[in-house]
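Hey, I was hoping to borrow your eyes for a little while. For a while now I've been wondering how a particular protein folds. The fold is given in discrete form, as structure tokens running alongside the sequence. Could you read through the record and tell me how the tokens relate to the sequence? Take your time with it, there's no hurry, and the full record follows here:
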Amino acid sequence: MKSKSSFCAALLAAALAISPLACIAGGVSLGATRVIYPAGNKQVSLNIANSGDKERYLVNSWISNGATDEKEKNFIVTPPLFVSEPKSENNLRLMYIGAPLPTDRESLFWVNVKAIPSVDKDKIQGKNVLQLAILSRIKLFVRPKTLSMQPEEAPSQLKFSLAGKMLTIENPTPYYITLVKMKLGDKALDSTMVAPMSKASVAADAQGSLTFQTVNDYGSLTPAQTQNLR
């Protein structure tokens, strides 16, 4: 268990924010790396599994706002707090109870899940103990049901322009698009997420063709695309 927990913690520290992990701590994992919430639905579910043989975890979950990162009062998470037993599975129910969101584009929120390992009080009595709580965050997209295109069509609509040492990415679609494994010529660029009907810029001190991949609804990478920049 120690090696597995250490491996998960190391991955969490090294991972990009746009590529969240299913692993939370030890044998605890989420059933998805992102959640799509169809607007108008009463709720969606997120599975949490504990594959460990012995460890119990106190699991605390909440939704935060994509813009301010503050706790979102318009979402209810049930149960917000529970004990994850060894070799068990639980379902979180996520319910939006707020005012209608924009109907022409996705809205972004974050699902936060914190796992706190249990402690045997008899074994630690009289000792100094450092207890670590591991927090995992995955994206939650509230998606209107009548958007102008399918999500798999969105990456092909991106527009790119290079000025000086900055690459600007324009997203005219109603979807959030995450670009990863970007390279301009032979130089790797930072990954980024572009909001619907918005622009984002990344440092690009290079020349040549741009290659990139995007992340789909299932957390998988799409085939690489190439753009010739002038």
About this structure: The longest strand covers residues 107-117. Residues 150 and 196 are 13 Å apart (CA to CA). Helices lie at 2-14, 121-124. The mean pLDDT is 87.
